[in-house]
Amino acid sequence: MVEAKKEVKKAFLNKYAIGSFNICNLETFQAVFNASKETNSPVFLSTSNTSIDYMGLENIKNLAEGLKRTKVILHLDHGSYKNAVACINKGYDSVMFDASRLSLKKNIMLTKKVVDYAHENNVIVEGEVGVLEKDGLTNPGEAEDFAEQTGVDLLAVSVGNLHGYYKYMPVLDFKRLLEIKQVVKTPLVLHGASGLNDETIKTAIRHGIVKINIDTELRWAFTKSVRDFLRRNSMNKFNNKSFDIRNYLGEARKSFERKVVDKIRLFQS
Ligand code: G3H
Ligand code: 13P
Ligand code: ZN
């Protein structure tokens, strides 16, 4: 694995973004790994609390053994306190601890605890100030206090970005993003990037975004691929290919991988 801190610094100085891609099974794990290899780019291989429950932390850890000497950064996404500690103990490279729904004071206090423990173990930490809702935009002054008092390595912000597909193409609050960037020296993270157009992504990178999270678009690509395959091939007991799991999951893995490659190229890493 690459040293996460160095990769983030490189992206910050050279003004590109590292993609963070959510995985939930072996095929999506392989797709992100292959895309990183194909593009020779660093990636955050992102596992949420829910995906950890689904896959099992021990299984993820065992899969990650094979990632040494690759450019894959094993990352916890929107982690609980319990999972942040567990992932640090299991050898993750990076954890996001998300206490953004608590008061600023509590968010700072708990995040600082995670940062102290993570840094002792050479793990980087992402925190979040503001919540991904219309009325949850990040306050630049609060972001400044949070970054200074916690010592996080990455800071996720809310500037009009939302999780899931957008009903209407959002206009991100770039003025706010610049105000945050002026007072926060920590590299910034954009969540909810599925469905944002290329121009918006490029502008976000120019405005200081260094890590970009994508989940929904990848799930869509994977599921669409399975559905298309099953629609094209009706099940037939005397045709093994029509119900060979590897056929439809293999196609889905390819679609997921192509999407990750496209995003990595867009992020210019
Ligand atoms: O931002 C949340 C991620 O998309 C993870 O979602 O909890 O369904 O895995 P999940
Ligand atoms: P999307 O599902 O909207 O791409 O958001 C992903 C994300 O922010 C993961 O933390
Ligand atoms: Zn997110």
List keywords for this structure.
269 residues; alpha/beta; TIM Barrel; eight-stranded parallel beta barrel; 11 helices; 8 strands; globular; binds glyceraldehyde-3-phosphate; binds 1,3-dihydroxyacetonephosphate; binds zinc ion
Please summarize what this structure is:
With 269 residues, this protein is of the alpha/beta class.
Question: Mind explaining what this structure looks like?
Answer:
The chain is 51% helix and 16% strand. With 269 residues, the protein is an alpha/beta fold. Strands 1-2-3-4-5-6-7-8 form an eight-stranded parallel barrel, surrounded by nine helices. It is globular. Residues 22, 77-78, 163-164, 191-194, 213-216 line the site of 1,3-dihydroxyacetonephosphate (13P). 1,3-dihydroxyacetonephosphate (13P) is lined by residues 22, 77-78, 163-164, 191-194, 213-216.
Helix-strand makeup class? alpha/beta
> What would the CATH topology be?
TIM Barrel
CATH architecture: Alpha-Beta Barrel
Helix content: 40-55%
Q: Largest beta sheet, briefly?
A: 8 strands, parallel, barrel
The ligands bound in this entry are:
glyceraldehyde-3-phosphate, 1,3-dihydroxyacetonephosphate, zinc ion
Give a topology summary.
Layout: H1 4-14, E1 18-22, H2 26-39, E2 43-48, H3 49-55, H4 57-64, E3 72-79, H5 81-89, E4 94-97, H6 104-120, E5 124-129, H7 140-150, E6 154-157, H8 174-183, E7 188-190, H9 198-206, E8 209-214, H10 216-232, H11 245-267
Parallel strand pairs: 1-2, 1-8, 2-3, 3-4, 4-5, 5-6, 6-7, 7-8
